[in-house]
Amino acid sequence: MTYEDKVARFRARIDTGEKIEAGDWMPDEYRQAALKFIEMHANSEVMGALPEREWIPRAPTLRRKLSLTAKVQDEVGHGQILYRVAEDLGKSREQMFDDLVNGRTKFHNVFHYPTKSWGDVAVIGWLIDGAALVTQKALLDASYAPYVRAMRRICAEESLHLRHGEDITLELVSGTDAQREMFQDAVNRWWQPIMHFFGPPSRPAGDVLLQWGIKTRTNEDLRQEFFSTYVPKLWDLGISVPDPALAYDAAAGEWIWSEPDWDEFWNVVRGNGPMTATRLGLRKGMWDTHAWIREAFARMPPKAAA
Amino acid sequence: MEVWEVLGKRAPGDEWAVVGAVKAPDASMALLLARETHFRHKEGVAYAVRRRGDAEDAMVTGAWPPETLGGVTDRSYRRQEAYAGVGAKLKRVAADLAARGLRIDRPRPPDLREGGGAP
Amino acid sequence: MRIGDSPRLLLLLAMADDELILGHRHSEWTGWVPHLEEDLAFSSIAQDEMAHARLLYGLALDSLGDEWDEDRLALGRPPSEYRNAVLCERPNRDWGYSLARQFLYDTADDVRTQALLGSSWKELTEILTLVRMEEAYHLDHARTWFRRLAEGPVAAREHLAAGLESTLGEALAIFEPLPGEVALLAAGDLPVANSELLAAWLAGVGEELEAVSLDYVLERHSKVGDMVPTASGEMEDEGPTLSVPGVERVRGRWVHRGGFAGAGGRAGKHSEDFAALWGDLTGLYRAHPGVTW
């Protein structure tokens, strides 16, 4: 069988909804596309931990301090799960981490921005996790089975985070004027990054990830779902969205919205976001100064206790 | 450093199932870590690790008894039950804010209820 | 309004504040521990400590007025009313430091809570029974890492040893006698004096360090009268700073020599590192009194 024949057979498997396992034969293009996608997802989980962990020391109640710690713990856990899946596609975790902290690979745009207040914790926990959950639920139908299994656990935990974020939001919007303002201000600052998060409207024909079934829905489709899920709730809570054009067009059955500045999006994911250098610098510092731990782990096990 | 598969049993009568993997230098570190990577949300009653590539029965079982997995003090903040009332809370808050004239009254998609529920 | 200073309350606050403040420091590792799976394990330990603090604060609330609640206790006191040992408030530095601190603190806490299981204060023994079930994992964690680093490559041993040297003196101060200790001993609330607890802990840690030839860190501490730095310019100066006993090896056993003098964390006297921690920990809570979050 020629390579092309094998690829065609493989494509037929995917088109009928069959799932691919780690040990299956796969075209190089599929392996590389899946690896890159999952690696970026893993990178995003560990980089996403950085803005949120800033508020663990400063949480305003003991209970929120605990729940925020647990939430960030889960994000790190998601990174651990996803790096494992990516490793089995052929790249070591050490190499992936080294590439990340040295700026050679990417992570989602939203994690390149600073946090300013507890309002940001609410927005991250509710709207950004909400946006992530919309995209992650779509991945439950992906063609690569180990990724699907990882996504099941991740989606279950993200659903809990969403409730936690919603709970924090509700306390703010039903609280003092200062608390309402804290949340509204955060929404105003985070709205464009959230719009960017779904990516530019893309042509399905040109989307390699869609073709291989690694992604299953278009960017625009997911963004529309996000609008429908969250904008009515924001409006019910008296919170405005800083896009004057945002409106639901009943005739068209879709949301009209202002396209954000996509140049900023590309600039950010290429490593020029407001907090990119700082956060990667922190991770790189930690990585470089703790090589001695990796060395300690690489050695033969210690002698059994006497 | 090696990959250690993590196995668990959800309920006492179950067979061992692979639930994930950790990277660790030896069995004792793998067990130490596996307890929190895969069982901190009370996902099981027993756990074990097995170095990848070893024989199927070469697993090393974790010593912690089932009631300690996932902690014994209050962990409600990281369980669904603690947030079971959030959907209702959103409705209440929305109703209250509407009464205060703060609701933003603009056209929305028809299939969502007024006041919204959790997704 | 000051919180008051009954011996029982100060016993609770000493332990609860140790757990809260150290839990706070441990939680500052969440998200960037050098090994991914260890990040998860250490975060659970951080959450445990804060959960233990919560249980102890809950018991303290039984004897406080209605104006006190869990958050006001945890986040609403001025610095001089926090009774944690200074060891707990130090910044995390690197993994060698933090791991050494976790090892010394949790072995000390084990000695303390074990003894308190014999307390005449039943509600406290119930809480500590629960707490010890979780602390057992902390000990497993500390010893597993201790073994791997102590018996690992030179760099690993050196980082562990450096961490132990930096933390040992302040670890002794976990056993600074409590204000009201005499009354607590008389009532049976505290079954064993802190000086005896210190002796038991030191003997045990000494053996563990000797087993891996790291007991030289104890030798380096041996001079009497090591000062535990306290009191930045912002804190009221209420007397001499704490000095801890020296240690020495007598007939094959590590013991302390001399006693504590002056006042440290148990008397509400903190180091120059406490102010920044307190600002982070309590700032948002105090900026909006009376609101819910």
Features of the shown structure:
heterotrimer, A: 306 residues, mainly alpha, Ferritin, two-stranded antiparallel ribbon, B: alpha+beta, Ubiquitin-like (UB roll), 4-stranded antiparallel sheet, 4 strands, 22% helix, elongated, disordered C terminus
SSE diagram, text form:
The complex is a heterotrimer of chains A (306), B (119) and C (293).
Chain A: H1 3-15, H2 28-53, H3 62-87, H4 93-101, H5 118-138, H6 145-173, H7 177-197, H8 208-211, H9 219-236, E1 247-249, E2 254-256, H10 262-272, H11 276-289, H12 291-298
Antiparallel strand pairs in A: 1-2
Helix pairs in contact in A: 2-3, 3-6, 4-11, 5-6, 5-7, 5-9, 6-7
Chain B: E1 2-9, E2 17-24, H1 27-38, E3 46-51, E4 60-61, H2 86-99
Antiparallel strand pairs in B: 1-2, 1-3, 3-4
Chain C: H1 7-27, H2 36-61, H3 70-75, H4 86-89, H5 95-116, H6 122-150, H7 154-172, H8 181-187, H9 194-211, H10 216-221, E1 226-227, E2 243-244, E3 246-250, E4 253-257, H11 274-287
Antiparallel strand pairs in C: 1-2, 3-4
Helix pairs in contact in C: 1-2, 2-6, 5-6, 5-7, 5-9, 6-7
Nearest-integer average pLDDT of chain C: 93
- Give the structural class of chain A: mainly alpha
User: How are helices and strands ordered from N to C of chain C?
Assistant: HHHHHHHHHHEEEEH
Structure annotation, total helices of chain C = 11
How would you summarize this macromolecular structure in one to three sentences?
The complex is a heterotrimer of chains A (about 300), B (about 120) and C (about 290). Chain B is an alpha+beta fold and about 120 residues long.
